[in-house]
Every structure is written in C-alpha cells, then in structure tokens.
Amino acid sequence: MTVLLHLYPLTGVALVGLGFYGFLILRHPLRQILAVNVVGAGIFLVLGGLGRGAASTDPFPQALVITGIVVAVALTAFGAALILRVAEDERAPDDKAAAKTTDDHT
Amino acid sequence: MSPLDLLVAVPLALMIAALLLGTWVRWLLLTAIPVMAGLTVWLLLLPEGSAHVVGDWNLPLGVQLRADGVAQLMVGAMAACASIVGLYALHEFAPGPDRSETAHGYAFWPLFYLLWGGANAGFLSTDLFNLYIALEMVSLAAVAMAAMGSLRAALRYFVIALVGSLAYLLGVALLFANYATVDVTLLAEMARPDLATKTALAVMTAGLLIKAAVFPLHGWLPPAHAAAPAPASALLSAIVVKVGFVILLRLWFEAFPAIVAPAGLEVLGWLGALAVLYGSVQAIRQDSLKALVAYSTVAQIGYLLLAFPLVATAAGSGGAWAGMTIHAIAHMLAKAAMFLAAGLMLKAVNGHRLKDLHGLARAMPLTVAAFGLAAVSLMGLPPSAGFIAKFLLLEAAVEQGAVFAAAVLIVGGLMAAVYLFNPLAWTFAGSDTPVVEATAPLRTAAPLALALLAVSLGFAGQAMVDVAASATSARLPAAVAVDVR
C-alpha cells in the first residue's frame, strides 16, 4: 500500500524532471510549450498523489489540480496562438509583417 | 461585502464588459476610474490588519484577502498608475482615420482590466495558490500586451514566464503536501525547517525571480518592455514585475521568516546588487530610449532584492521594510511616467534613438519636464519618494555596517544619474527648435501627473512609513486574525 501511495508523487517528480530537461534542450517554442506541459502534468500528479490517503481521499488538492489544469489549458492555447502568429509573420514578409518587425528595436 | 474582494471582482467584471462593449469600449474607463478610486480609498481607511475570507469559506480551505500596509500602498499606487495610464491610452488607442489602431484598441482594454484585477489579487491575497492564479492572470495580460509590440519578444517572455509559474506551482504542491494548507498566515504558525519546505521555498523563489526579472533571469524584460506601445510598456514595467516581488515578500517575511537561512537572504541581496550594477551599465550603453528605460527597470528591481538582508537583520525597526516598500511604489509611479513621456517624445520625432531627441526640450517642454521629474525620483534625489526610499535603505545599511549594500546604493544612484542625464542632455542639445505635431493636452498631462505624484509623495514620507510599518506588525499571526465581515 505504501508503495502505491508513493507511486503517484514519484512518477510526478520523474515527469517534472523529464519535462524540464526537454525544456532546456529543445529550441522550438512549440516543443518547449509541450515540455512545459509535461512538467505541469508532473506537478498535478504530485499534488493529487500526495492528497491520496490510505482510507479516504482529500478533495482539496483535487480542486487545486482542476484549477491548475484549466489555467494550463488556457495558457497552452494562448501560447499556440502566439506561435501561429509569429509563424504567419515570418512566412508572409509583406508590408504588415515588415512594419511589425521594425517595431522591434532591440 | 468588503472592498477587499470588490477590488478584485470589479476589474474582472469590467474586463468582461470591455469584451462585450465593442466600439465604446474605451469610455468604460470613465466608470472604472471613480469606482476603483472609491474602493481604494475604502481600502486605505480599513482598520489595520483587516482581512476577509472569500465566500465565507474559513481557513484553511478558504482564500483570505488582507489589507496590510504593503497591500494598501501597492493597491493605492496601482490605482493611481492604472487610472493615469488609462487616460493616456484613451488617446493612444483611439480609432484612427484609417481605423488601423482599433485592433490594438479592442485588445488593449480587456487586458488592461485583467492586469488590474490580477495585480490587486496578487497584492491582497495571502493564499499561495490564489497567488498563483493572480500571477498567471498578470502574466497572461502582460504577454499579450508585449505582443502588441513584438511577437517574438512576447513569445520569449511567454515561454520563460510559463516555466516561472510552474516552478512556483511545484512549490505550492510541496507545501500543501507538507502542511495541508497554503495560507501564508497559517504556514507562518507551523513552519518547520525540513527538506520539503526548503525545496519548496527554493523553487518558488526561483520562479518568482523570473517573474520579477531579477538578474540573471531578466533576459526577457528589455526586449518585451521596450517594444510594446507606451501605455503597455508603462504597465509592464511599473506593475507586472511588482506582483512577483510582493509574493516574494509574503514567502520570505511572512510565511517562513523563522526558517529562512541568513545565507539565502544574502544570496538574494547579492543578486539584487548585481542587478543594480548590471542593469545600470546596460542602461548607460543603450542608444535606444525605450531600451534604456527598460534596463533601468532591471536596475531598480535590484534595489528591492538588495533590501532583503537589510529587512531581515533590522529586527524591530521598520526602516528598511518601509524603504523597500516605498521604493516599490516610487518606482511604479516614476517608471510609468517615464515610459509615457518617452512614448510621447519618440512619437513626436518618429524615431527611437537618443540622438533623435535633439533639441526636443524646446518643442515639448512639459513632456521633457515629466521625464526629468521621473528621473529625479529614480535617481533618488530629494524631495522625491525615491529619495525617501533610498535614504531609509541607506540608513539601515549603515546602521548594520553593511558596507557593500551601502556602496551599491550610492553607486547605483550615481549610475542612474549618468544614464538618465544622457537622454535629457540630448533634449537640450543644439539651439534649433524641432517642429513636432502638438499632442493632446490629456496625453501631455498624464506623464506629468505621474511624475509629480512620484516627487510629491516624498513630502508624505512619514505617512507612507507609518502605513508600511503596519505591515511589520501584521506579520505577527495574532494581528491578522481580525475579520471585518
């Protein structure tokens, strides 16, 4: 039973490490966002797994995990939209895109 | 009902209204300013240590909002800052004759209210998970605002901010597993110096240092802040980085003051000192005005961290604590003023380099004056609020014999003078008066009002020290148990 209790948090920690490693070595922003999502999944597993008791399950960490997942989904969608816009700007070097890049002074 | 939850709920309601209103969206501000000003005054009048649990869910489950000195000062400065920046943006995002600016205008206002609500939640909450949500709301608004200037800088900012958020969330998960609560005031009572707590504190601090753009994790800030439109830059530099800073305060001085190692505080102090020196050197080297102002933010954030070991050592005397808090709001007002003034000047000359400002003081005296007054507060010259803050910090450093911190405070002030005199010198160069288009009076007035506020708050120094000091007493768990429901 104790092995089972620790299985979830330990898997979570492994996912966090894996995701962070991916974030560091991957260069494409889409892959980086996916890597960060793996980290997120790991954290939710830690949070949910540690709230699991032998007899009963604490609902509070589950509420936190659900909130966290909502935030993660929203941010992932936002990041994907941002990547799409950057890709569109790069693919179409018309006046609009040129104006956008000259705005970037630094 | 309490002003504490209204201060978060009202901006969020305004955000939804802004999404629905369409063409009339910018006039929503005229409702927002008086309502938020009223709520802020109500907050400032609340008795010391007032707290409110949202939805009557008691601790440890509920989310507590609390009006301590830091929260009162930050929410107050935020309201002033957002109102004035909003008035400036009223013109910036007005529909042009070709309606080209309207897309930005539609996007800006919901983000503006989201940022306002998120920042207020960040300043008022004592619940670490709720602070995570606040942090994400602010980051989301900030990234989208940065994307109005440069998509690439925004994407870089987004990815790094995401890692910061998750590091923070990992810490929250560890703390919850260890203590079964994530409320700062409850954690303070049962903090144990075990490995899990220390790991949690370390990863949360790392995440927040990214959010607050503390050296060496500041790389995302200058491109993102320099490329955004002027009102967005002002909000990013003035407010967004402060949210991370306030959460750091909650962690280090409220939740875990008993267990933080002096070595940890020293590390933060060193990072702050390096940020001051590095940010100042980079600001001196810039030849683009907005990049200079953005690097100045990196330097000024450094002072906030430099104060950490001073605050921890200054047991009993609130001088260093007050200095740190006042520095945060002085920088908020002065930096917003400076970005708005820089935006006006650069728009007038249609360039972005320092040499484009040639002789501009004769064409736009009021805007250059606003830039100059903001510079006075950033350099820490009397009688500005920036002076009060640096004086209090210097006094604490000298009292404690922290020679290095004192030296950084003085050298940092001198370097600020160097990088800020440089653009000012250009505006006075030559003898010809450049011809510039006249700007609307409201837009000229906005940076001037913020800069005057930053300077004149120096006269209210004692009052600010008193308000900030109420935070030091609120750090005792007994003082926060009062509920005003």
UniProtKB/TrEMBL annotation, chain A:
Kindly indicate whether the keyword Transmembrane belongs to this entry. yes
Query: Pfam family example for this protein?
Result: Oxidored_q2
Q: Cell membrane as a keyword? A: yes
- Cell location: Cell membrane
| Record key words, sorted | Cell membrane, Membrane, Oxidoreductase, Transmembrane, Transmembrane helix
Return one GO MF term: NADH dehydrogenase (quinone) (non-electrogenic) activity
Q: Which residues form a coiled coil?
A: none
Q: Identify the EC number(s).
A: 1.6.5.9
The transmembrane residues are 6-26, 33-51, 63-84
Q: Which InterPro entries match?
A: CPA3_antiporter_subunitC, NUOK/Mnh_C1-like
Q: Topology relative to the membrane, per the entry?
A: Multi-pass membrane protein
What does the similarity note say? Answer: Belongs to the CPA3 antiporters (TC 2.A.63) subunit C family.
Q: By what name is this protein known?
A: NADH-quinone oxidoreductase subunit K
Which source organism? Paracoccus mangrovi
